[in-house]
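Exercise 7b. Backbone tokens:
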């Protein structure tokens, strides 16, 4: 039965094309430095828009919030000039007015950006789940090997049966 479980676990590991050997499981890699919400959001905005890291940092330095930066990114993705968008915003126009000036609808642009964010979250979640499953399989294989390495315990000797009580006289 243990051999059967070992073979199943090995087959699953091979499906994931993991570079793990059954006889030795590599320790988990060290966790990278903790990412802050700020750096995570910065990375997402850069990935989902045509904005450069310097542009995003410049907008953050000018007290633009992440929502406003996403508006800028959505307008730039639609083909508008980064400098023209910032000039319009500096002149006092609102984000909806800027989008209307270029015959765009800000809601549609933002939906496209949010769809990209949602897709990135799904991909990250799937990767995380696959890693978790692979680690669980590696732990199970290691546990099976550990059990196989132990000598089996000898069977317990049978317990002697209790002697029957003698019948009491007078009953």
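Sequence design result:
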């Amino acid at each position: 039965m243990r051999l059967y479980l070992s073979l199943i676990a090995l087959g699953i590991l091979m499906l994931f094309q993991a570079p793990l050997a059954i006889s030795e499981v590599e320790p988990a890699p060290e966790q990278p430095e903790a990412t802050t919400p700020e750096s995570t959001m910065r990375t997402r905005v850069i990935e989902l828009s045509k904005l450069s890291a310097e542009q995003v940092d410049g907008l953050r330095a000018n007290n633009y919030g992440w929502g406003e930066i996403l508006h800028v990114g959505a307008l730039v993705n639609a083909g508008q000039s980064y400098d023209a968008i910032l000039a319009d915003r500096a002149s006092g126009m609102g984000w909806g007015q800027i989008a209307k000036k270029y015959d765009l609808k800000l809601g549609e642009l933002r939906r496209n950006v949010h769809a990209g964010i949602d897709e990135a979250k799904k991909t990250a979640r799937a990767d995380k789940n696959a890693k978790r499953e692979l680690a669980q399989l590696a732990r199970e294989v290691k546990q099976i090997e550990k059990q196989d390495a132990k000598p089996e315990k000898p069977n317990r000797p049978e317990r002697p049966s209790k002697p029957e009580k003698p019948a009491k006289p007078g009953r």
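Instructor comment: Confidence is low (pLDDT under 50) at residues 18-23. The helical segments are 2-15, 37-48, 53-61, 66-77, 82-90, 95-101, 106-149.
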